[in-house]
């Protein structure tokens, strides 16, 4: 679920937000709003990497069910 959410909302939706707002600028700094919204797809990529890392760690680690450390 997290991979699907990150890919569709953050990466795909974030890309659309960036593309739609490249012409607008911020009032104070005159930065393009597309560059500000670029944080969404970048965050989506990091979420996907982290989720895949955690998934692989869970699947490849030996089962420790029922043991207290």
Topology readout:
Blueprint (H helix, E strand, L loop, with lengths): L1 H19 L12 H5 L1 H22 L9
In words, what does this structure look like?
The protein has 69 residues and is an all-alpha fold. It has one domain. It contains three helices and no strands. The radius of gyration is 18 Å and the shape is elongated.
Count of helical regions = 3
Query: Which structural class fits the helix and strand makeup?
Result: mainly alpha
Cα-atom radius of gyration: 18 Å
Low-confidence stretches: none
Mean residue pLDDT: 90
- Count of DSSP E strands? 0
Can you give me a brief rundown of this structure?
The chain is mostly helical. The chain has helices at residues 2-20, 33-37, 39-60.
List descriptors.
69 residues, mainly alpha, single chain, 0% strand, elongated
